[in-house]
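Researcher: Batch entry, complex prediction.
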Amino acid sequence: EVQLVESGGGLVQPGGSLRLSCAASGFTFNYYAMSWVRQAPGKGLEWVSAISGSGGSTNYADSVKGRFTVSRDKSKNTLYLQMNGLRAADTAVYYCARQPFGSGTHDYWGPGTPVTVSS
Amino acid sequence: QSALTQPASVSGSPGQSITMSCTGTSNDVGGYNYVSWYQQHLGKAPKLMIYDVSKRPSGVSNRFSGSKSGNTASLTISGLQAEDEADYYCSSYTSSSTYVFGTGTKVTVL
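Model: Structure tokens for the complex:
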């Protein structure tokens, strides 16, 4: 059974940093690209970042480019999102999601981890 | 990248069919057959309902169907049921090798 479980969310002050993790199980982790998607309170979904299966290719939304870094550790079957220079607008539930090869979709999602940026 | 445009709400009675739209540009919806639809119940993670415009994942009811014409994709729910009441989001791959989501549609079963 495919499982994705995010962790690392919490309360952080503006300008601070946080690292999110997404533990993957039930599939061959390095065969799949992965994405981070966020949802601000009461708002819609926003794609944040993606990383290829090998980790050699990454992409970011303009809203986080230069502040967030996505990475993965295949020995730990874990996806990461390093978030620096956090702003109030980054307050959201952050989901990790799996991207099947050859398909532009996200087929499995974790339950999400909440991030609140506030003083 | 601007969000794809969806109607804010759609409603129907049990047993009826409803259709919601998702409008983008030639750089996303119109340029790729990589449109997906997600169902999200309150407080839950999104669930994939349709991918690659019209394909259904295993386990998703055949009451859900997708299509696309030009820069607009559509999701149809036939035989509407109470459990279909949720928010629905479309998504597309883009020419910038990123993804863009729609503004979301709230489905109400009357």
